[in-house]
Amino acid sequence: MVEYELYAPGSDVDVTNNYYVYFRRDVDGLYYDTDDATFKTFGALVDGQIELVEDSNQPGVWALSLVLVGEDDGAYTILPRDGQTDELFTEQVAQVYLVNDMPLVSLLEDQIHLHDQYTGVDNYKLIAENGDPVEGATVRIFTKADYDANVVGNPIGLTTTDASGLWLDPIPVNPGDTYVIVFHKEGAIGPTSIEVIVP
Asked: 16 lies in which domain range?
């Protein structure tokens, strides 16, 4: 059983608040669909939004208990979002490693998440020269050392952009290093790169 808690405004502030998560299997990037308890591509999801339930004794604490029966061992990422705005809670993204359907350890506690809003609003949102957002572009992250040495066959992380030019997923990196974000969409943009220092 995977258990998760989100800390966000509760019913003592606004009774209309609600929150949900997407649950992603990292080995293949597929998402859990509660409609039939299988993993699918993001675009094929029927009901991929797993609702969080507020703790009646602790307003502002939203919990999730998810039982995955017969799933493979490995890493899974929990991506929490605001049900009102669909905004991603980047600081409360979590990852668990399952063995025999039981979580062993969080893998991301000491990591930083790079995303389109890192260090500022829309800092790394992908916009074309004409000002339009670029949908379906690939976003790859490399260490600067690897990128400069042209070691680019195995990026640290990879995601794509949505219709607003925003990243579908944050990418965890270790603090204390410089990274290169590479954007590319054939016939539309790039490849173009940006360096990011993660203190």
From this structure: 2-106
